[in-house]
Amino acid sequence: MNKLIIPALLSALILGCTTTPLPEDGTTGAPVETRSGGNTVTTVDAGSLDASGLPKALTDPKSKLSQRSIYFDLDRYDIKAEYQDLVAAHAKFLVDNRGFKVLIQGNTDERGSREYNLSLGQKRADAVKRSLVLLGAREDQVESVSLGEEKPKNPASDETAWAENRRSDILYRAADGRGEF
Amino acid sequence: MSRIFHRLCLFFVLLGAVVGAQAQLSIEITGAGANRIPLAIADFAGDSVAARVIAGTVRSDLERSGLFKLVEAGSPGLDENSPIDYANWKSRGADAIAAGSVQRTADGRLEARFRLYDTQKSLTLGGAAYITGNEQLRTAGHRIADFIYEKLTGEKGVFSTRIAYVVKARGQFLLQIADADGQGAATALTSTEPIISPVWSPDGSRLAYVSFEKKKPIVYVHSLASGRRTVVANQKGSNSAPAWSPDGSRLAVVLSKDGNSQIYLVNADGSGMPQRLAASPGIDTEPRFAADGSLYFTSDRGGSPQIYRMTAGGSDVQRVSFEGNYNVSPRPAPDGKTLAFITRREGRFQLAVMDLASRQVQVLTDSNKDESPSFAPNSRMILIATEIGGRGILSAVSSDGRIKQRLSVAAGDVREPAWGPFLK
After folding, report:
1. pLDDT, tens digit (0-9, with 9 covering 90-100), for A124-167
2. Does the first or last residue of chain B, that is N or C, have fewer Cβ atoms within 10 Å of its Cβ?
3. Interface of A with B (CB under 8 A)
4. Which backbone phi and psi does A64 adopt, to 5 degrees?
5. What is the per-residue DSSP string for B44-82?
6. A112, B186: Cβ pair inside 8 Å?
7. Angle between helix A114-134 and helix A84-96 axes, rounded to 10 deg
8. Is the pLDDT of residue A4 over 90?
9. Where are the domains of chain B?
């Protein structure tokens, strides 16, 4: 019999959280240069990266590309009309940014066989992949996998939760390997 | 007596510090067979602590099976060599009686000896001796219970077998192994990501399962003694639904690398390339080898998920299930006579069995969310995952639906049961 695997990571996590206090000498922050007249500076965001290493275009809530979920009807895996524009926007990003890859994760609600649901989730992921490739993304930019019923976004057992869990999610990874998967 | 039996609730404190599951797996018996064999198990003579553990294990095993009614034996001062007053035991209602003893051996281990008697025919049915360490007293009890079970029912007992299952507790997934009575749980794998579909290798030394630890489903083979893990299917897309070939050298798995979920064969040591077994335009999944080498599986090629059967080579595909529009998770019984599966009836997912000769289907449960059936190696009981009060529990149901037991963990959900093979 295999020995028990007991992760002893909790203490490590706690030790990792330390706070460095700021100096309290009354002069908070660096001096700000104030200018007026026709000398304004417009800040340009040259694709700065967020914490996950992805451009803000993919993660800023104001950007359409921050919408990463496509929802499905019961027992269905066709992409509904209301999500066509979203899928097209992601396809365009992949065409414009060939170094980026996406992982499509298909999900189902909790009812029925776990393994059959895994296959159903795969169909939902494949449907998104097929659309992206049709719209110009390269085959090797897109991998589709299934999480079946195993990773419910909403863990409740009612129609609202089930609708929320019948879903494909799009995860991004930049050329340098940083990203969401 | 029968009421007490029905409601009998045994709580076992499991030894071994286990993260998350910690570990009270309780068994509740909720149904018993119609004709139970009345049987007396006398207290064992000798080392009193060890004797109590062994006799107690034998009694609870046999009682839990639902096939025996324990007749009060008291403390008649018997051991395996005492003469048996057959008429007396017969008049007390016992069709059979077992008596035994536990002695310390010279090297400090324990030797349990016993003999079983038929009071109707006034003869001995045989006996055995088992030498064990102190920590394996219950194992000796399970062996004795298996012996008695086989002598009195004519089929092999499964008290010495083990089960695997997944516990979800506090955001952790634990793949655990326990004795068939739920005791002695040990954790083979912990993960923050889901673990599903564990299946035992035919020799009981390894488990194959699907782990999501790499953010996608990958099939592993895990040697229980060493903890060594081998990736046997990690193709592009999803890898799932492992099923051992009868000789343990290969696994049927489901891969989506070529589009739809389809069934392939891979080597159990992870070598070589997957070999496609069959091609269908829809989903093919949940393969399981039957005793005759054929494969049962779930497919939606006909428009709804139904159970099909094909040869081990992937030819001669035949539809097996016809009633209703959702029949999944086929599990052929080890004896080849029946097929257990999950059927959806009026929105409820229930365990059913099909007699493979007559194709007659019987629904065995009245629950809503049955999943993942697994036959005991003697084909008599079926372990399933189900839900009570929103909590995942395991339930063992006899293949005639009469006997029912529940196994649950206080601190979490239990799911994905897999009943292991006979001990060699």
Report:
1. 999 999 999 999 999 999 999 999 999 999 999 999 999 999 99
2. C
3. 1-7, 103, 105, 111-116, 118-123, 126, 143-148, 150-151, 157, 181
4. -60, -35
5. PEESHHHHHHHHHHHHHHHHHTTSEEEPP-------TTS
6. no
7. 60
8. no
9. 3-23+160-419, 36-153
Asked whether the CA dihedral B225, B228, B233, B236 is positive or negative, the reply is: positive
Query: Are A4 and B326 inside 8 Å of each other by CB?
Result: no
Q: What is the pTM of this model?
A: 0.85
Question: What's the gap in Å between the CA of A81 and the closest CA on chain B?
Answer: 23
Nearest CA in chain A to B197: A115
Amino acid identity at B360: Q
CB contact under 8 A, B224 and A1: yes
Q: Which helix (H) or strand (E) element contains residue A140? A: none
User: Quick one: which of A73, A181, A90 has its CA closest to A135?
Assistant: A90
CATH number assigned to the domain with residue range B36-153, chosen from the 4 options 3.40.50.300, 3.30.230.10, 3.40.50.10070, 3.40.30.10: 3.40.50.10070
More reliable by pLDDT, B9 or A73 = A73
Q: Which residue of A has its CA nearest to B190?
A: A5
Nearest CA in chain B to A123: B260
Backbone angles phi and psi of B88, in degrees to 5: -65, -50
B175 in contact with chain A, both atoms CB, cutoff 8 A? no
Q: What is the CATH number of domain A48-174?
A: 3.30.1330.60
Spatial distance between the Cα atoms of B417 and B419, rounded to a whole number of angstroms: 7
Q: Check: CB of residue B76 under 8 Å from CB of residue B97.
A: no
ipTM of the complex: 0.88
List per-block mean pLDDT (blocks of 10 residues) for chain B, which spans 424 residues: 35 31 61 83 92 95 93 84 92 95 91 95 94 88 97 96 95 94 92 97 97 94 95 96 97 94 97 94 96 95 96 94 96 97 96 97 95 97 94 93 88 94 88
Specify whether the CB–CB gap between B404 and B32 falls below 8 A. no
Q: Is B342 within 8 Å of A113 when comparing Cβ atoms?
A: yes
- Residue B374 with chain A: CB contacts under 8 Å: none
Cβ A3–B227 below 8 Å, yes or no? yes
Under an 8 A CB cutoff, do B226 and A2 touch? yes
- pLDDT at position B8 is 32
CA dihedral B362, B367, B371, B377 (to 10 degrees): -50
CATH 3.30.70.20 holds for B3-23+160-419: no
Contacts of B16 in chain A (CB under 8 A): 4
Nearest chain B residue to A75 by CA distance is B304
Please report the residues numbered 313 through 342 in chain B whose beta carbons come closer than 8 angstroms to any beta carbon of chain A: 326, 328-329, 342
In this structure, how many other beta carbons lie within 10 angstroms of the beta carbon of residue B409?
A: 27
B177 vs A1, A119, A143: nearest CB: A1
Can you give the residue ranges of every domain in chain A?
48-174
Give all strands (DSSP E) within chain A, no chain letters.
Answer: 69-71, 101-107, 142-148, 167-173
Task: Give the pLDDT score at A50.
Answer: 65
Contact A111 B349 (CB under 8 A): yes
